[in-house]
Design goal:
Largest sheet: 7 strands, mixed
Distance between the termini: 64 Å
CATH superfamily of the largest domain: Aldehyde Dehydrogenase, Chain A, domain 1
Radius of gyration: 23 Å
Helix content: 25-40%
Shape: globular
Strand content: 15-25%
């Protein structure tokens, strides 16, 4: 059975009775899975009041209590992964193995925050006057408002929730209305783990309306958002107008640099598999492929053949390797990228047309001979389209990689330590992966530069956005 959908406010699950609802659609079949209730203004006010009241006690809760609850959520994540994963595949579309893997890996995030929340240290500053005692403490910022996307509904929500709760904050989270089951499952786990009422609240609704109302509220002191650059800029501007702290993890257009001394066969196969993860709907997906001229043909042949063998289908089918796009509107969006590329002289090597079947299916697509100012080279596709172009000069390819306002993730393939060091220093990106894909672990910071965001999630930096620094001096 698909997840029962509701609001979660002040420790209560509130159904859609008397509230506006919306259909939740299976992107593989267009079947209606359930009805998601939208929060009324009264619901939002109740969530704000509950979060503010809960903060008065939760801010002084023992780190051991917070750690115990987060560890229990990690345990429940592993125990319930199959059921939660199946529901995620139903409403988001990714293959079941990817869905379950997302949940199991996020148990590690809960465990990481359970440990790190016990290590939120201050410091003593040696005084100039021996009669003075001066020290620094880190304190929770207050009530947080968080907004999470549909592509990794479990991962993105639990990162923000664990960081806020572990820091001693309370949180109101608006998850993705298109793929809500994973966020509902998180609410049930924290509820079952004994989290006090009001510390976590889940609301749904028209994104622009909910975000505007919550960010303007004087109760909210911190805003965290993962999503597109245009929306992120709007929310950051609104938060800035009210002097509220922000963490923004926004879009990217990740360059891939494959040098002629790389293990080309291995790189091409790995990149092909990574490219079709979640049908390319990944903010750190490799999206601009620059391959040194000497190995360009070899790379392209291996890359295309690997993608040609990918089984596209319903995520619940056991042999599916790539599922549908999450939204019906994304199918014509992919076609527009292809049409623009071909119109500009691009050569379509693989795919390029929607699959003739029910559901939001678009095949892995590869295009070459594309100018740098084409749509696919300047706008994030967020889908299974890969432009592959040759390069000769290292300095020139670095300029091309850095030419966009995005700076989230990047990838470099080379066996030269000198090249790896040189390029990793030069790339304008929050994350540089050399010869593998190593981002998004609980113990590593995740975030971008330039238009790709402000702040980091994960790693030692995970609580930075949820804490204020207070200096105390006495005599």
């Amino acid at each position: 059975m698909y997840e029962t959908l509701s609001l979660y406010i002040d420790g209560e699950f509130l159904s859609g009775e008397g509230r506006k609802t919306q259909d939740v659609i299976n992107p593989a079949t267009h079947e209606v899975l359930g009805q998601l209730p939208h929060a009324s203004q009264a619901d939002l006010d109740r969530a704000l009041t509950a979060a503010a009241r809960a903060f008065e006690t939760w801010r002084d809760s023992s780190p051991m209590q917070r750690s115990e609850i987060l560890r229990k959520v990690a345990q429940l994540s592993r125990e319930r992964a199959q059921d939660i994963g199946r529901n995620m595949t139903l409403d988001q579309g990714k293959p079941l193995a990817e869905s379950v893997g997302e949940i199991v890996s996020c148990a590690d995030h809960a465990d990481w925050h359970a440990e790190e929340c016990r290590r939120i240290y201050g410091r003593v500053i040696p005084p100039r006057n021996p009669a003075v005692h001066q020290y620094v403490v880190r304190e929770p910022v207050g009530v947080c408002a968080a907004f999470t996307p549909w592509n990794f509904p479990y991962n993105q929500a639990i990162r923000k929730i664990c960081a806020a709760i572990g820091a001693g904050c309370t949180i109101i989270l608006k998850g993705p209305e298109d793929s809500p089951s994973a966020v509902m499952a998180i609410a049930r786990m924290f509820h079952d783990a004994g989290l006090p009422p009001g510390v976590l609240n889940i609301v749904w609704g028209v994104p622009s309306e909910v975000s505007d109302y919550l960010i303007r509220s004087p109760i909210v002191r911190k805003v965290s958002f993962t999503g597109s650059v245009p929306v992120g800029k709007q929310l950051a501007a609104l938060a800035g107008a009210h002097m509220k702290r922000i963490t923004m993890e926004l879009g990217g257009h990740s360059p891939v640099l494959v040098f002629d001394d790389a293990d080309v066969e291995k790189a091409a196969k790995q990149l092909a598999r990574f490219k079709i993860r979640n049908a390319g709907q990944v903010c750190v997906s490799p999206t601009r492929f620059y391959v040194q001229q000497k190995v360009f043909d070899h790379f392209l042949e291996t890359f295309v053949e690997t993608l040609r063998g990918i089984k596209v289908g319903d995520g619940l089918e056991s042999d599916t390797e790539m599922g549908p796009l999450a939204h019906e509107r994304r199918v014509p969006a992919m076609s527009r990228f292809v049409e623009d590329s071909v119109a500009r002289g691009g050569k379509l090597v693989l795919g390029g047309e929607p699959l003739d079947r029910k559901g939001n299916f678009f095949p892995p697509t590869v295009i070459t001979d594309i100018p740098q100012d084409s749509m696919i080279m300047t706008e994030e596709p967020f889908g299974p389209i890969a432009p592959v172009v040759p390069f000769t000069d290292t300095e020139e390819v670095i300029r091309q990689a850095n030419s966009l306002p995005f700076g989230l993730s990047s990838y470099v393939f080379t066996t030269s330590l000198q090249t790896a060091n040189r390029v990793s220093r030069a790339l304008e990106a929050g994350m540089v992966n050399i010869n593998h894909f190593g981002s998004a672990l609980p113990e590593t910071p995740f975030g971008g530069v330039k238009d790709s965001g402000i702040g980091s999630e994960g790693g030692l930096e995970t609580f930075d956005g949820y804490l204020v620094t207070k200096f105390v001096t006495s005599i």
